Amino acid sequence: MEDYVDEGVLDEHTLKTLYRLSSRGVFTALGGVLSTGKEADVFLAERGYEDVAIKIYRVATTRFKEMREHLTGDPRVRGIGGSRHSIVYRWTQREYGNLRRAKEHVRVPEPLAMDKNVLAMEFIGEDELRAPSLRRMEFDDWAEIAEMCVEMLIDLYEGGLVHGDFSEYNVLVFEELVLIDFSQSVTPEHPLATHLLRRDVENLVSFFGSRGVELDECEVLERIGEAL
Ligand SMILES: Nc1ncnc2c1ncn2[C@@H]1O[C@H](COP(=O)(O)OP(=O)(O)OP(=O)(O)O)[C@@H](O)[C@H]1O
Ligand SMILES: [Mg+2]
Predict the structure, then answer these.
(1) Which ligand has the shortest distance to the CA of 130?
(2) pLDDT tens digits, one per residue of 45-60
């Protein structure tokens, strides 16, 4: 883990958090980087013979004002301090909470643990190879996949969540469709919920359009709305 500190990937705080998680037995060894995103990096880790995914939010994130706006509207989140650290910790905690809620309704990575800006979850993939996203897949019957995605959004909404960052990149294909990246997910009462739901559906319609499946945005929205 120290190598990552030397390379400036992990700061001292994060390193302490990782040590705490590993001493809790959440993982036994940290492996390579799976993805470097805008706000978070995702690492592969091991727990014995099992693979685990570790998502680490950067505290020096650039989107921290947007994070605050998102969190402020969330009835589940109270009393957010103003510091970067506290906002990013709340953000991580909310993604963990979202995963716990979502897993009762759709297939998502099993959330394992969280501490500060670090979230540990089931690794979706095999032998250290992560499952591909929908974007990279070829299917004969895209309409069937589209219907599965619409149903996923319906089931999620019924369970009290709008994904908020739905895209072909956030659906992994591993025997079935696995929805990931719940950092922006909100409950339907959130002031941004309608906007996010609309955007999710827009993304869905435009991606499947590019795969030759014509979906009607209003119809999809209506189907989701009827879920409540
Ligand atoms: N549980 C997991 N199992 C396997 N791979 C994962 C898992 N979680 C995340 N990944 C990989 O890491 C990538 C980034 O994860 P995620 O979408 O949660 O973060 P992000 O902050 O949105 O990153 P980005 O800015 O790239 O969208 C995913 O696209 C996926 O390839
Ligand atoms: Mg993502």
Answers:
(1) 1
(2) 999 999 999 999 998 8
